[in-house]
Amino acid sequence: MFSRNFSMQWLLIIILLTVILFFKIELGTVKNENKILFNKLTEVENYTKNMREFKSNTGSEKFEDITIIYNRVPKTGSTSFVGVVYDLCKKNKFHTLHINITNNMHTLTLYNQIKFITNVTQWNVIKPAFYHGHIAFLNFNKFGVKRMPLYLNLLRKPLDRFVSYYYFLRYGDNFRPHLIRKKYGDTKTFDECVKASQADCDPNNMWLQIPFLCGHDPGCWEVGNRWALAEAKRNLVNNYFLVGVTEELDEFIHTLQIVLPSFFRGAHDMFSHSDKSHLRQTIQKIDPLPETVKKIQNSTVWKMEDELYNFALSYFHSVKKRLLNASSQDLNQHFMYEKIRPK
């Protein structure tokens, strides 16, 4: 009897120990699962926080936040390009605004630079937005703004642009044919002007595309300043989204349609198959004689402006080659992420 009771006691003890061990194991598992869950939640929370900080620091943005500034150089085909933009803005759901500066000035005072940047960055109800106007490049980063607008521009062969502007001031264009220009009535040809060494055709007046890309620094507007040319090139590469050339306006628009479809969807077809391809033609323009061309091309300013133009042309061709004339390798290019650590 004693032996059976003793055996029963041991059996109960073993069962009790088994139950205790089972609960300890289960409790440990729960604690471990809770710890894992806590770590996962912390990881997610940290990831979300880091992403918020990343977006804040890098200026990551959606289409609704994008701002484009086209600081158009006079007589480069800008009216034709902007005509397409105005026709697209309602369809593609963005706003287009013309920047009109007092007396057609190309630079802003320091006060107005701050005011303009504040307005462009904080006027959210108008975004996405496409601003255009004859205004020199303005570096938003200089004023502590992390998110730069997307800058666009078009350059033209400097002598062609110069001659076109000379006759435009005298005869106007077919865009506003009844508007009297400030040199109206002056019938002197460009050749005659150059031969007489008059101020209107002074090669120094070609100093425009360089300062437009250089910016608001006073040095940008010093005629013949080599630093200004170097700065214009730096801005073209580092601060402009795309710079095209007037002579290849069709390809410029086609490229924009590929890389910025949210703004330029349908632009190329509209430009190619409508009357938008040349909205503004100077009413009367006479090509200069070879001796006139040679005299202009001997000037320092023409050489510098031509250097910028050819730099822009080469850079645009490199972009265009990989988009419009892409090789099979470029057409099939993809990227992916792998070997992500830690897991």
UniProtKB/TrEMBL annotation:
Keywords: Disulfide bond, Glycoprotein, Golgi apparatus, Membrane, Signal-anchor, Transferase, Transmembrane, Transmembrane helix. It is a single-pass type II membrane protein. The keyword Transmembrane applies. InterPro entries: Heparan_SO4_2-O-STrfase (IPR007734), P-loop_NTPase (IPR027417), Sulfotransferase (IPR005331). One of its GO terms (molecular function) is heparan sulfate 2-sulfotransferase activity. It is found in: Golgi apparatus membrane. GO terms for cellular component: Golgi membrane. One of its GO terms (biological process) is heparan sulfate proteoglycan biosynthetic process. Pfam families: Sulfotransfer_2 (PF03567). Homotrimer. PANTHER family: HEPARAN SULFATE 2-O-SULFOTRANSFERASE, HEPARAN SULFATE 2-O-SULFOTRANSFERASE 1. Belongs to the sulfotransferase 3 family. This is Heparin sulfate O-sulfotransferase. It comes from Cotesia glomerata (Lepidopteran parasitic wasp).
